[in-house]
Amino acid sequence: xxxxxxxxxxxxxxxxxxxxxxxxxxGWNLTSDPCKDHWKGIICDKQNVTVKKIFLNGLSFxxxxxxxxxxxxxxxxxxxTAISLNDNNIxxxxxxxxxxxxxxxxxxxxxxxxxxxxNNFSGPIPKEAYRFTVSSFIGSPELCGGPLPNGxxxxxxxxxxxxxxxxxxxxxxxxxxxxxxxxxxxxxFLLALVLFFLVILxxxxxxxxxxxxxxxxxxxxxxxxxxxRPSAPSNEYKIDVSKSxxxxxxxxxxxxxxxxxxxxxxxxxxxxxxxxxxxxxxxAELLGRGKHGTVYKVICEEGMTLAIKRIKDWAISxxxxxxxxxxxxxxxxxxxxxxxxxxxxxxxxxxxxxxxxNGSLRKLLLGTQIGEAFDWxxxxxxxxxIIEALAFMHQELHDDGIAHGNLKSSNILLNNNMDPCxxxxxxxxxxxxxxxxxxxxxxxxxxxxSENSFKSDIYGFGVILLELxxxxxxxxxxxxxxxxxxxxxxxxxxxxxxxxxxxxxxASEERMVSLLQVAIKCVNHxxxxxxxxxxxxxxxxxxxxxxxxxxxxxx
Length: 555
Ligand SMILES: Nc1ncnc2c1ncn2[C@@H]1O[C@H](COP(=O)(O)OP(=O)(O)OP(=O)(O)O)[C@@H](O)[C@H]1O
Hints:
Pfam family, one: Pkinase
Number of helices: 15
Number of strands: 16
Strand content: 5-15%
Structural class: alpha/beta
Low-confidence stretches: 155-176, 213-247, 249-261, 437-446
Shape: globular
Transmembrane segments: 182-204
Bound molecules: adenosine-5'-triphosphate
GO molecular function: ATP binding; protein kinase activity
Protein name: Protein kinase domain-containing protein
Radius of gyration: 28 Å
InterPro entries: At_inactive_RLKs, Kinase-like_dom_sf, LRR_dom_sf, Prot_kinase_dom, Protein_kinase_ATP_BS
Mean pLDDT: 77
């Protein structure tokens, strides 16, 4: 690919301050191929076709690293997984373009001149960045919280995304409010007042009509969740997907109005004033039916795309469900998909999520079976992110006894940055059908049950690790995969279990075996024998750190 060669050569020219490559033996010219002719510092895939890594450490370069030269070239942007330029004397250019290198999981640029023009981020530091020291945030004076001495004022969201909001309000404050703005706000206020009175007037009229109707019927047909009538009254919310899968629900106008009050919209920054009518009217597409319900993709008029899960057969009272949802809403982590809203009646439980167009980890793994790339460092990164998010949730919700309950690769969704997000946390009673040790869970004491549900998540995570390592996706029963892996390992054919794609890529056998050992501990048939979540997180991080060290030393 000539474009790739040009881009690499121009990047090197910039790095070396427009000097030609210091040594002719490096390759790096248009008459040769970066992969086949083994350009210095270039690491390609096993087939010697695509450039995967650039390692140019300690080469006394004194120019600049221009991220746009690499990451704005499509074929490089989709293949590069690591760039390491440690210990030169270079500065950075267009570093904001680094995000276009979508597969990049490692960027090593320490031991250089200033690599950024500073980020100027503002707002609260997200939790997963707390482990960095204060010096990592230099150049962003508006950041607050985390390791920084300045705490944050109370803000609705903990993400950097909330920064613009903060900035705007700060600027407004400093400028003061102009006369024009006062006039404009007064007009808005008057309009809002008129609207408010109109709505009140309408509601009063409606109430009057209703009273008259009730008098005439001489009976009250109240919507009562606790009564399951054979013939539903007209104002009861009905869902009937069996008739048509083009809408999540069918309901009459009046029923929708009554039901709208039952849709509880949580503290999500994604939707504003989501109404039940919008969900009812929107076209829906069936995404899949699982053991615990059905998921629909729904495109609302406002342009939002949502995923709605109808939960099947969960014997939980409406009150407990509501309380659980509200408690879960208080615990946020960037890698846990929040529930936007929920609907709850005796017959029906619906959960609303933001639709994740990149699909699930399960889908990604299935893709490898038809040759789609999914490299070792991305798999390791995904495992590390999931366990960190799960450990956070367990810690926060341990006292409430709320574990995930149904952790599996179809419940790990990939967000727009391809980062994994745990979905459906805490929405199910523990699924014990295909886990050997939980069969008698009902006979145990309450505390034991709750502990077991946390240990059941460790089992679920172990199965995800097995899927990542073997490239095989669990079909019906997680036990099948665990049993197969154990039988192969017992016969000392360990390498046979690994995904051939990982072997071809040259992933470290030693670290794959380390991860396999973690997985095997997690799927132990006895919950007590499984490691604690913190032990699992520590083991995964150790493997990851070893991987990082080896990448740097490879260079
Ligand atoms: N927010 C979402 N965005 C995109 N896809 C989603 C979303 N939520 C669920 N899905 C996908 O919809 C499909 C059906 O989900 P569902 O949760 O019903 O299946 P499951 O996880 O196999 O079963 P269950 O959770 O009931 O045991 C899955 O492929 C899942 O990855």
